[in-house]
Amino acid sequence: MTSPPRYALYFVPAPDSDLYRLGAGLLGYDAFSGEEWPFPDDVIAELPDWHDLTRDPRKYGFHATLKAPITLADGETEANLLAACVDFARSYVTATRPLPRIRPVARALGSFIALVPDEPSPALQELAQTCVEAFDRFRAPLTPQDRARRNPVALSARQLAYLDRWGYPYVNDEFRFHMTLTGRVPADRREAVLELLRERTRAHTHAGATLAIDRLAVFRQETSTARFRVIAHHPLQSRETTST
Question: Is the pTM of this model over 0.90?
Answer without folding.
Answer: yes
